[in-house]
Amino acid sequence: MKIELFYSPGCTQCAAARDGLKAAARQAVAEVDWRELNVLDEIDYAVELGILSLPAIAIDGELAFASLPTPRQLRTALTQRVQRKA
Amino acid sequence: MLTIGKLAGLAAVSADTLRYYEREGLIAPTTKSDGGYRLYGKDAIVRIRFIRQAQHCGFTLTEIRELLALRNRRAACCGDVRKLAVEKKLQLEGKIKAMKLMSHALDRLIADCTEEQHPVEECPILSALEQVDASARPD
Q: What residues of A are in contact with residue B93 (Cβ under 8 Å)?
């Protein structure tokens, strides 16, 4: 599963939450392709996904969280996706 | 101290605009004269120029209020302001994308209309717009 964290460089909120979210994702899903994207380098892609605020998280190319979730919220969203796919 | 008229002249805005900014919580008079007239410090000129410039960059008054608050918050850093600017850029790019799609839709309609002398009842542009309207209307 591909998880993309869009961040603005210098965002202290993103840096502080990143490790917790990454760990939560790895707990919920066996194979995680975790990517961290500087929104300024990927502006067209971010606009295509409908990202308007930062930080934001997309799962498998869909905007899943328009603001930073808690690790628990991310874990729940990922688990639900895995169940839907099964 | 500056009266509202004097400040308006120096900042190149109308007195009505200043009253509006005041109602929106963006500026406030430093004091009032004995006659009850608003009086502003010279720093108000810089503040109003800031507001105007931010408006030109597409920030709403609510967002400008947030920028002004960040400006005065000791714990805030440049990254906080940058984040707001990046978010504004995302919004603007989203609007540009939507407007380009609208422009392409108009291109198609314009291309369909090749008979300028046809009566208006046969106009393909109006006809296409009517169809869009009909399909968008809820049953």
A: 43-44, 47
B62 pLDDT band, cuts 50/70/90, is very high
Q: How far apart are alpha carbons A38 and A46 in whole angstroms?
A: 10
Distance from CA of A52 to the nearest CA of B (A): 6
Single out the residue of B117, B63, B66 nearest to residue B92, CA to CA.
Answer: B63
| B78 Cβ contact partners less than 8 Å away, ≥ 6 residues apart | A10
Q: Does B138 touch chain A (CB under 8 A)?
A: no
Which helix (H) or strand (E) element contains residue B64? helix B61-72
CATH for A2-85, among 3.50.30.10, 3.30.465.10, 3.30.565.10, 3.40.30.10? 3.40.30.10
Tokens 């790019």 identify what position? Answer: B93
A39 within 8 A of A6, measured Cβ to Cβ: yes
Q: pTM score, two decimals?
A: 0.72
- Is the dihedral angle over the CA atoms B36, B41, B42, B47 positive or is it negative? negative
Reported as a single tens digit per residue, the pLDDT across B94-113 is 999 999 999 988 888 888 88
Please give the Cα distance from B123 to B115 (Å, whole number).
8
Domain ranges of chain A: 2-85
ipTM: 0.75
